[in-house]
């Protein structure tokens, strides 16, 4: 796993448009670097507005061609072949993400099962798309039914914190529905998306159906406002999501957004602490805290608060932070120097506001970490609900802990946030579990577990965490138009 992928033999990486790897029309490129070492990985084509236009045109041409009329079983066959190829090449894809993002290879390789499962789940959905014959009360003998048709060209704008997983998650419903796509990966982590696009072609996806446009924020903005885009699927920050909604408004594009979070993780006194302690740590520290649904607000019932926090601190000190290529590493660096600086500014601000640092609280150095962007797993206690560290999404390995007394109290405090993406509840009491599941305002409630995902179960947010759901039996509806047909039989 330590050998660099063959793709990186090419220092210059071009975008994928219309089935071909092509440079930006401007000739400009941007660098992507290894956040663990600072080493240059590649110089990537920096697409601009003209490149957005040609990518959208390629996707439109592919949509108007035979693709949208292909038999469902043929699209299914291609997707199943793609699932096989993604699994066959997943060590390479995982290594690209480890080098590009800094996530430990022990973590990125775990995405193999999920990637294959997503593609196979949506391959099944490709053969289930159907309209309805509907009764009506019109006078005479009139038949009414609906048709389900692919919406058209989709813009998929992806975040940097789970590159290959996001590429698959965005592409699967597009392929199943008969839509086409222009995918814009984050500029911090473009490499695995380009390789995934190549695998799509190898699987038999027609040229132009999946296009990968690399570039900076201006390329994403141009894609969001392009009149040739019919739907936008965005995962990322709430601030950028708001800009995308404004950009989409003038052409009334269909939009689904999965945005930020400040998720509560709630531990009751009757919880199994042997399970809850490590789960509470990794609910926030996994992927160096760079997960939108991370359990960054930990509420512990007062009678066990001190014991739980002592155990949590001990566990956190055992977490192995270091070289992402070492299979024993649990946490790698954050994605970039600006992200590291942002996290450290939150940590400094928490101390100034009066929070107590229980564990961590600094940049990590020494032991070969000096050139990377490593932040210690950090736990704050003595945090007030109105502190900045308790309200804003840090997107780093930073946990705030609070004590609580009653169900009613913790529900009110857990919901006192503009976000609502994930949440956790730890209890052995069935009544408490159900009360919490009903009361928490979030798209996912994990009881005695955290961050569980499955292709058949919807994922998405309440409030500022977005709208629309990914995965589950109804996700594909976001990629379909419903047409009503009336036939007068008289």
From TrEMBL:
User: Which regions span the lipid bilayer?
Assistant: none
Family matches, as InterPro entries: Ald_DH/histidinol_DH, Ald_DH_C, Ald_DH_CS_CYS, Ald_DH_CS_GLU, Ald_DH_N, Aldehyde_DH_dom
User: Ranges for the Aldehyde dehydrogenase domain?
Assistant: 28-485
According to its UniProt record, which residues of this chain constitute the active site? 258
Q: Which UniProt keywords apply?
A: Oxidoreductase
Q: Output the Gene Ontology terms for molecular function.
A: aldehyde dehydrogenase (NAD+) activity
Query: Per UniProt, what is one Pfam family of this protein?
Result: Aldedh
Give the Enzyme Commission number.
Answer: 1.2.1.3
PROSITE patterns on file: ALDEHYDE_DEHYDR_CYS, ALDEHYDE_DEHYDR_GLU
- Please tell me whether the keyword Cell inner membrane is annotated for this protein: no
- Protein name (database record): Aldehyde dehydrogenase (NAD+)
Q: Which organism is it from?
A: Novosphingobium sediminicola
Q: Which lineage do the record's taxonomy fields give for this organism? A: Bacteria, Pseudomonadati, Pseudomonadota, Alphaproteobacteria, Sphingomonadales
């Amino acid at each position: 796993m330590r050998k660099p992928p063959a793709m990186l033999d090419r220092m210059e990486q071009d975008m994928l448009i219309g089935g071909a790897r092509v440079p930006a029309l401007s000739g400009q490129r941007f660098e992507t670097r290894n956040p663990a070492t600072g080493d240059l990985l590649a110089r990537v084509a920096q697409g601009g507005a003209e490149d957005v236009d040609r990518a959208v045109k390629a996707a439109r041409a592919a949509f108007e061609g035979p693709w949208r009329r292909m038999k469902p079983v043929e699209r299914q066959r291609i997707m199943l072949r793609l699932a096989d190829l993604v699994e066959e090449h997943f060590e390479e894809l995982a290594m690209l993400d480890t080098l590009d993002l800094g996530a430990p290879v022990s973590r990125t390789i775990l995405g193999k099962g999920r990637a294959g499962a997503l593609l196979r789940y949506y391959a099944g959905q490709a053969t289930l798309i159907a309209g309805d014959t509907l009764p009506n009360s019109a006078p005479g003998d009139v038949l009414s039914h609906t048709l389900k048709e692919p919406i058209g060209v989709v813009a998929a704008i992806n975040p940097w914190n789970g590159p290959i997983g996001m590429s698959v998650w965005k592409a699967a419903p597009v392929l199943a529905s008969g839509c086409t796509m222009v995918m814009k990966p984050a500029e911090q982590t473009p490499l695995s998306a380009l390789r995934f696009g190549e695998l799509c072609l190898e699987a038999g996806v027609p040229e132009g159906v999946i296009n990968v446009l690399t570039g900076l924020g201006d390329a994403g903005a141009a894609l969001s406002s392009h009149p040739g885009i019919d739907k936008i699927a965005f995962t990322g920050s709430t601030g950028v999501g708001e800009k995308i909604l404004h950009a989409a408004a003038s052409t009334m594009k269909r939009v689904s957004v999965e945005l930020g979070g400040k998720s509560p993780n709630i531990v009751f006194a009757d919880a199994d602490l042997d399970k809850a302690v490590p789960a509470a740590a990794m609910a926030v520290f996994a992927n160096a805290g760079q997960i939108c649904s991370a359990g960054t607000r930990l509420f512990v019932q007062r009678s066990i608060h001190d014991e739980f926090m002592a155990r949590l601190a001990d566990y956190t000190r055992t977490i192995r932070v270091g070289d992402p290529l070492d299979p024993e590493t649990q946490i790698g660096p954050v994605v970039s120097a600006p992200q590291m600086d942002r996290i450290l500014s939150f940590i400094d601000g928490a101390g100034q506001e009066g929070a107590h640092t229980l564990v961590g609280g600094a940049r990590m150095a020494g032991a070969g970490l000096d050139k990377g962007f490593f932040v210690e797993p950090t736990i704050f206690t003595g945090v007030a609900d109105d502190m900045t560290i308790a309200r804003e999404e840090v997107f780093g390995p930073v946990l705030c802990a609070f004590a609580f007394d009653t169900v009613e109290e913790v529900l009110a405090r857990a919901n006192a946030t503009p976000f609502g993406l994930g949440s956790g509840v730890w209890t052995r009491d069935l009544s408490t579990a159900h009360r919490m599941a009903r009361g928490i305002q979030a798209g996912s409630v994990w009881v005695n577990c955290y961050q569980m995902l499955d292709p058949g179960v919807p994922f998405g947010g309440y409030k500022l965490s977005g709208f629309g759901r990914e995965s589950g039996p109804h996700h594909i509806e976001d990629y379909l138009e419903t047409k009503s047909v009336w036939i007068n039989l008289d």
